[in-house]
Amino acid sequence: MMVHCNRLRDHVIGSLVSCSANLHNPLTPNDPFGSHDYLCNNSPAERNKLMELLSRTENSSTEPLVLKTTDQHICSLNNEAHKFAFDIIFIGLKTKLDDVPSMDAWECYTPPQSPSRAILEDLPLFSLSPLPYITEIGDYLLTLPQQLEPFMSHDHPALSAALKTGKMPVLDHTTVVAEEADDDHPSSLWLAAIAKGTMDTYSANILRIRSITQHASRQIATDIAYLCNVLAALGQSASATLSQMEVLFKAEEEEFYEYEEDESISKDLYVKLKKIRIWDDD
User: 179 and which of 42, 79, 188, 201 could share a cystine (Cβ 3.0–4.6 Å)?
Assistant: First the structure.
């Protein structure tokens, strides 16, 4: 639809430009009927509007001056199609991430006298493995470039036009401008949108966890680090919120409280994590 609309617009603009040329340079200058400017005598206001439209059409290279309403309807439909496609791709990720707050792993309390307590306390962070929920999300994200590749072919001009002009969900204008510097920016924009949606949803669901034990904090820091590594492999940077969460969940009790005055850590995020973290002596 967008390609056909663009072709129709080019045809209409071509006709208007031709009309403008005929007004200024009549084909039959010696023919009084051919050179008579009837609009100037009968409807000067309408003639002025026509001349203004012709002038703007000749000088405009970006903003569409004809079929503007049609353009708006097609763009709106295109944006809805983008949102629908994004929701289909993202629904599996969202379903898994929405289960994070209710996972038992965060609230498994080990009594101080338990033999396994000392083992958990001495367990180094690097020895922990990411939990299945986050590895499944990582595996899915790593397949996205392959899934998107067939839709990024330059052999489909209609699809390329729709991808380049559609509004990507969850992305702000700054991100879109940055990604458009890439020649294959439709693919980059889709990866950026899904990555941002994943990080935002993950961060929001982590903050919905009622309480997190000290060992669980190490585990969730491991899960976050794993997701950040997957995103880096896809050329996507971790969000500031997710990066700060990893730092705060890795911190032991004394170190955690030192971050209260750290300007690199969001105060709001610090307060929220302080409420849900449980220390061994609590």
Answer: 188
